[in-house]
Amino acid sequence: VIGCTTMWMASCKHAPDAQMKASYATMKVSTADKELTTPYSATIRGRQDIDIYPQVSGTIERLCVTEGQVVRKGQLLFVIDQVPYKAALKTAQANVEVAKAALATAELNYSSTKELFAKKVVSAFNLKTSENSYLTAKAQLVQAAQELNARNNLSYTEVKSPTDGVVGMLPYRAGALVSASIPQPLTTISDNSNMYVYFSMTENQLLAMSRQYKSMDEALENMPEVSLKLNDQSIYEQKGKIESISGVIDRKTGTVGVRAVFPNESRLLHSGASGNVLIPQAYKDCIIIPQGATVRLQDKTIVYKVVDGKAVSTLITVAEISDGREYIVLDGLKVGEEIVSEGAGLVREGTQVK
Questions:
Q1: What is d(CA 110, CA 32) in angstroms, rounded to the nearest whole number?
Q2: Angle subtended by helix axes 83-118 and 147-156, to nearest 10
Q3: Which one, 128, 211, 258, 307, has least CB within 10 Å?
Q4: For the segment 36-76, what is each residue's pLDDT rounded down to a tens digit?
Q5: Which residues are bridge partners to 262 per DSSP?
Q6: What does the alpha-carbon distance between residue 139 and residue 290 come to, in Å, rounded to a whole number?
Q7: Distance between CA 290 and CA 341 in Å, rounded?
């Protein structure tokens, strides 16, 4: 009897514990302002990357710059052997002088023949022959006028920078034979006063931007300044601006090309480098919940509201971008509602929540 009494008392003692509500962290839904940044893999290019090729053939006589040197537009970069081009110029000048003399002689003969024909001393045949000789001499002067081409070719032996920028690698040295068909350029001049940063957006991101700003023109005008995270994970000190968005979606990747421009006064950015463009997006008076308050089921997001002390699953819509800690709720929750804020994955429909 004593043993049965003891067991009955023990069962009565544990019964209330089994019916106690489980304890969960909860929160009241409220609104706040939130700014999120979306990273996009990007490549960095100079404002102009101009490959320098020679316009004439010859051996490099002199290098006037070194790799990484800052140059100005019109500054001398290379000198190609000028001897054959100077000789060609002198020959062209001499040919022109010979043609001029021949033209002057033909012109005198033609004038004299016209006078003689007027006095009926010579025949019409002689007049026509003299005229043809004059026209031939005139044409030969035009053919001999190669001085301009020879002078241009001589000027091309001095290879000059077409723009302000920085000199790239110099694969050819003094004595190397070069021509317009060489496989590598003499060098590349990169105009890096401002740097272009190229990245891609998905079709959905492009559509969301179009809806937010009404049109692409307004988006380009009103989009906030963007940041650049460099390859060493540091943030570039100066902000950039998105300048252009391609109007064609790539069929293979489903993305659209975007270009941002960043000032580069410190010359920290280099053409060919990589990084991440960070685009901020501000949300005003939005509902923000911790990610621990949600359960992801395939493409659906669920939270548990606390209604009359019980957990009620609710489907919500969240913004595509997040900071890895919180979600911005676009639909499914109202201000003042109470939800389970931590451990939502352990909650079941109808669970008693303390």
A1: 98
A2: 170
A3: 211
A4: 888 899 999 988 889 999 999 999 999 999 998 999 999 99
A5: 195
A6: 88
A7: 7
For 297, the token pair is: 């089921």
Distance CA 4, CA 307 (A): 41
**Which residues make beta-bridge pairs with 310?**
307, 352
**Where does the chain have alpha helices with state H?**
2-18, 83-118, 124-144, 147-156, 203-213, 216-222
Compute the distance between CA of residue 30 and CA of residue 338 in angstroms, rounded to an integer.
Answer: 10
Beta bridge partners of 277: 40, 228
CA separation for the pair 136, 120 (Å, rounded): 25
Measured CA to CA, the distance from residue 20 to residue 352 in angstroms comes to 8
With CA atoms as reference, report the closest residue to 302 among 272, 265, 329, 267: 329
Q: What's the one-letter identity of residue 131?
A: E
| pLDDT, tens only, 190-239 | 888 899 999 999 888 888 788 778 788 888 888 889 999 999 999 999 99
State the angle between helix axes of 124-144 and 83-118 in degrees (0 to 180), rounded to the nearest 10: 160
As given in the structure block, the two tokens for residue 264 are 């580069």
DSSP symbol at 111? H
DSSP secondary structure letter of residue 97? H
The per-residue pLDDT for range 224-281, each reduced to its tens digit, is 899 999 999 999 999 999 999 988 888 888 899 999 999 998 889 988 899 999 998 8
Per the structure block, which two tokens stand in for 107? 């012109």
Tokens for 83, please give them. Answer: 């001897």
Which amino acid appears at position 205 of this protein?
A: Q
Burial of 300 (0-12, 13-18, 19+ CB in 10 A): exposed
